[in-house]
Each structure stands twice: as C-alpha cells, then as structure tokens.
Amino acid sequence: MTEGSDLSAVDASLADITATLVVGAVRTDISDLAQRQAAVNLAEAIGIAHGNALNRFMNNDIYSEMKSDVANATCKVSGGTANNSYCYTFNDIMYAKGLVEKQRGRADAFVTYPYQAAVGSGTATGFYPFVMGNITSVQFTTAMAAYVASGQISELFGLKLYVDKVYEPSNAAAQNAVLGEVIVSGESMGYAQAEDIVSEIQRWAPQVGFRIVTHVTGKSARVMEPWVGHIIHA
Amino acid sequence: MSLPSWPSSAGQTLIASAGGLDFKALAEQYGKLTVREIVSGSSGLALAQLVAARAAIQLATLVDARKFCRVEMVPPGEKVKA
Does B72 touch chain A (CB under 8 A)? Predict the structure, then answer.
C-alpha cells in the first residue's frame, strides 16, 4: 500500500458450504429365543456389527464427495491404459501433493485403499501393491525402510496415511477411477454432524422379539475443492 | 448422555445415545443379566446403551474418515413445547 492512502476493500468471494443431512441406520432383529443369552455378549456382537456398518456409511459418504470432483486437481497414473489397471507410483503421489500445494494448501494426508486385483492386463492397485512395487526398487528402498522393519507406516513424505477398504473403486481400470487423493486435513473436507451414534430398541410383537436400530445423522461436503488432489486412472 | 426412556412395553421404544457412555462400566454393571432381564426390568434402557456404546468403540478401531474432516456440529434446535 502507499503511505497515506486508504486500503482498497477486497472481495474475498466467500460462499457458504451447504450439506443436506442424511440418516444412516442399521437394524438387527432379536428373537425371544435369545432371551436367556447374556445381555452383554449380545450387545457386544450387535454393537460391533452396527459400528462397522455406520463407519462404512459415514466413510463412504465422505469419500464419494471427495471423488466427485475429479476434474479439479488431477493427475493420471503413469502407464494407465483403457481397461487395464495400473497402480500409482511415487511420482503420482508427489504430483498430486504438488497440485494441492500449488493452490497454497498444506497437504498432509493421503487417502487410498488397501488392494484390488489387476484388471485386464494391468497391475494390482492400492497401497500394498504400491509398497511392494517399491520395496524391490533400489531407488526407493530407503523411503520404505521403516515399513520393511515394522510392517507399519503412518506417514509417507509428510502425508498421514488413511488406507481404507471402503475407499476402493468398483473398477480401478475404469476411466477416471480415483485411486488415491492427497488432501489437507481439517480443511479440504467437512462433515456436518447432527447426531452421534444412537441406538433404539423396540418390542416387535409380530416377530416375537425385539428390533434394535442404530443410527447417525450427518453429511459431508467439499470445503476447499482445490485442496483435494486426485490420482485417477487414465 | 441418555435420552428419556419409557417402559419397555410393546410398541414403545427405548433410546440411548453413545455420547458419554462407558461400555466397560456398563458391561460390569449388567454383566450377569440375561437379555430377558435387561429388556423387561427397570433397566430396560441398558441394552440400547450397551449397543450404542459398543458401536462407538468399534468406530475407534476402524479408519474414521471424519478424522481428516472439519467436523461441524449441527445445532439440535429447540424442542417444540406442547
């Protein structure tokens, strides 16, 4: 600014992010035949099943939103051809990270899936095929040294890893199938949480038993679209 | 936090939110009871509490995508007074 002159107002073009809430629910029916069972054991089994189901529901919702804007910041896997799957490489991850940081995002997380078998005449895809593809590479063995020793890796080049089966595309060789995404934690994506986990139990005489329903209410949204760097199939 | 409960007679529903529930403490409290005892007595809400608490624990064992999201709590709004 010039000394003595007023600052010009800047229109930041801020826009509201909206999300329409949805309910995720899972139901288990308990026959009266189970009435003599230990309650804690039954609750444990149902709780595990309901927790798994609701986790899948919420994660799938978040991943779907993340993947729905592949045209924004995208790199295509090296060597991918139509109908033949190819796993991403270090180059692809670093390029996706660069796409986010080019937009001034501080990329700090990488989301992907564990494994999908090769499609067509391509290669298996996912995080573990990526790891195995590089363990044999002299050039990158050092970067994978921690994994070779411990079998665990929580960060890769400063990116916290989220490896989730729910993230897996139905066909990694499909055009624009998303194989992984580099994001900024807490900023790229948002989740509107209206209701935490709630369980209900109701007597259901027509089936001579009880119905147990567990549900959550929430919805994800893309908050900073340029800060989701996609790695997709060609 | 537990929501208000009703008698566990036919057609009525018992509701429990996982927020603030301690599954281990609940399991110790109700460890010796059968399903019949827990849903028909005065502690009818307990089964819903146990399921909700255990489901919440299960989420902690899995990849929870909310961890890399900015989570905004949606206000519950006010209850309509009769």
Answer: yes
In this structure, what is the dihedral angle of CA atoms B66, A22, A226, A105, given to the nearest 10 degrees? -20
The superfamily in CATH containing domain A22-232 is: phage-related protein like domain (3.90.1690.10)
**Which contiguous run of DSSP H or E holds residue A20?**
none
Instruction: For chain A, say whether B5 makes contact (Cβ under 8 Å).
Output: no
Chain A positions touching B20 (Cβ under 8 A) are none
At A43-91, the pLDDT tens digits run 999 999 999 999 999 999 999 999 987 767 778 887 778 889 999 988 8
Q: Which of B33, B50, B72 minimises the CB distance to A47?
A: B50
pTM over 0.80: yes
Q: Domain extents for chain A?
A: 22-232
Between the alpha carbon of residue A30 and those of residues A47, A78, A212, the distances in Å are 13, 51, 8
* A191: helix, strand or coil: strand
ipTM of the complex: 0.87
Give pLDDT tens digits for A161-204.
Answer: 999 999 999 999 998 899 999 999 999 999 999 998 999 998 88
3-class DSSP state of B16: strand
CB contact under 8 A, A55 and B58: yes
Q: Does A17 touch chain B (CB under 8 A)?
A: no
Residues in chain A closer than 8 A to B12 (CB atoms): 202-203
DSSP at A215: E
User: How high does pLDDT run on average in chain B?
Assistant: 79
Q: What phi, psi does A81 have (nearest 5°)?
A: -125, 165
Cα distance between residue A209 and residue B8, in whole Å? 12
Give the angle A10-A13-A14 at the CA atoms, nearest 5°.
115
Chain B hits for A31, CB-CB cut-off 8 Å, are none
What are the beta bridge partners of residue A22? A218
